[in-house]
Predict the structure.
Amino acid sequence: MAAAVITKQDAPRGTRAQEDYLEQILSLIEKKGYARVVDIAKNLNIAQASVTGMIQRMDAEGLVSYEKYRGVILTSEGEKIARAIINRHESLTKFFKLFGLYDDTIYDDIEGIEHHMSPPTLATIQALTEELKKQPALLSRVKSKVFQAT
Ligand code: FE2
């Protein structure tokens, strides 16, 4: 089965900070049913006042809709971008999980690199993931080198 590839059109766009916010808002909505400023601030480790300021700017840009007492919802444009960001994160997770790295390491590293990944590079990693899955012997040789190196 071919991997779902993020096309240029679907590629996340926006600043790195906006990408972190959109990713966090969608994941909160999916986990809890709503996204409040207090939870976004806690999860991103950013002061609530700064979060409110950013959310207001993103509201003005049409990415989210913010009402003080109802929390933050994504517009269809915001949701489309957030889904592409989450798909990209998941694709990268699938790749790094092949090598038996720790989940926390994988998560933190992806949070650092994901914003710098263009669609063709991501498509390369997705293709590599599919191919490596079919090569268990190669995969275990790589894994043994990774653990020798750490
Ligand atoms: Fe992420």
